[in-house]
Amino acid sequence: MGVLSNISVNRVLLLLVFLTIAAAALPFISYAPNRLVSGEGRQLWDIQPDMAWGLAAACVLLFLLCFVPGKSGNILTLIVSQLLVIAALVIAGTTATYLAQTGSPLARTSLGSGFWLGLGLMLLAASDAIRRITERASWRWLLHAQIFILPLVLLLSGTFNDLSLLKEYANRQDVFNDALAQHLTILFATVVPALLIGVPLGVWCTFSVSRQGPVFAVLNIIQTIPSVALFGLLIAPLAGLVKHFPLLGSLGVAGTGLTPALIALVLYALLPLVRGVVAGLNQVPRDVLESSQAMGMSARQRFISVQFPLALPVFLRSLRVVMVQTVGMAVIAALIGAGGFGALVFQGLLSSAVDLVLLGVIPVVVLAVLIDALFDLGIALLKVSNND
Where are the transmembrane segments (predicted)? Predict the structure, then answer.
């Protein structure tokens, strides 16, 4: 009993391994004779038995690594989980190519639930290993970034061209590009006004505690309103304004479309921005402010040279939340005609086309992850520069 109690177990990895084994029972791919017919799920063991045994052996190795303590075990876990990700992607791509060459030209090969679940679990295993390997944020960022190098190379080399998702993209490339431009427009047209309103409002609230109560009460009420309801509430007032002031219509203002979406998204962005400014400025040590005042700095100089740089990391975390939140909520804005990737998602849902839904969902996820990663890198570099 004493020996067993001294064994170190990575419980997170152990759980992920068991879930990955369970994912193997789900369909790895789905094969349909054409786009309109529901696909038939096929397990990995049925399509490529040899590769399936290799993946099973890798899962056994991961299970054994659950009991290997220290950095060496985590490094091996990162390597094995990445190899599993690459292997799953290669198997999916080569299987789709084989089925396309041997079957009907109209046939579609989609990625199954087993693939998506297994891929997500292995990415989680890799991320957990990175977290245990190093505590430095910059190194964690680099290790996370390198995971996606080989998948990107496979994508650009055409390995996945015969998957139905890539065929859907090829058929709708112009629509996809327009959706990307619209989604980015919504993002930046939301963030810029939110910054112009939220930052001064946060600074104004910081210098008077009595102001914070009413301001945060209003912003909290806005935050509790469901997004679809807020979009709907804005349609009638905006339509009325355009009716009474035709000039607004000539400027592009309308009851539906981009205008109500931007107003609603800006309102949703204010609470985290104002809260981030207030929290950032309040966490500046009082002795630092007193020292800068003793050096003869004016209130404006203290704010620009002392308070703002020290509050910046906290504020950037709030801005990261706003941007990731906006990327996701912009999908719902497509319900009122704002466009973006949400239009592809809802069009796919209406036509029961899963690949079309994924064509809208996956870029949103990638965009959110990319924004989050860039903010992580920026905050890490900012901390390094502040320490220096």
Answer: 12-31, 51-68, 75-99, 111-130, 142-160, 180-203, 215-239, 245-271, 327-350, 356-382
Is 32 in a helix, a strand, or coil?
Answer: strand
In this structure, are residues 199 and 277 in contact, taking their beta carbons and an 8 Å threshold?
Answer: yes
What are the pLDDT digits (tens) for 216-272?
899 999 888 888 888 888 888 888 887 777 777 777 777 777 888 899 999 999 999
The residue ranges of every structural domain in the chain are 11-164, 173-386
Instruction: Answer positive or negative: Cα dihedral of 127, 129, 132, 133.
Output: negative
* DSSP structure string for 115-135: HHHHHHHHHHHHHHHHHHH--
Contacts of 57 (CB under 8 A, 6+ apart): none
What value, to the nearest 5°, has the Cα angle with vertex 370 and ends 325 and 200?
45
Give 183-216 pLDDT, tens digit per residue.
Answer: 999 999 999 999 999 999 998 888 877 888 888 8
Shortest CA distance to 323 belongs to which of 362, 379, 259, 368? 368
Q: Locate 88 and state its tokens.
A: 């799953």
Contacts of 204 by beta carbon, 8 Å cutoff, 6+ apart: 211
Chain position carrying tokens 């397990």: 43
| Residue in the structure block whose two tokens are 């696909």 | 39
**Alpha helices, H only, the chain:** 2-5, 11-23, 44-47, 49-65, 70-102, 113-133, 137-147, 149-156, 164-171, 173-206, 209-224, 227-244, 246-250, 258-282, 286-294, 299-302, 308-332, 341-350, 354-387
CA–CA separation, 382 vs 380, rounded Å?
5
- Count CA atoms closer than 13 A to 244's CA, side-chain side: 5
Please identify which residue in the block is written with the tokens 């941007």: 323
**CATH second-level architecture of 173-386?**
Orthogonal Bundle (1.10)
Cα–Cα distance for residue pair 34/291, rounded to 1 Å: 73
> Rounded CA gap, 223 and 193, in Å?
17
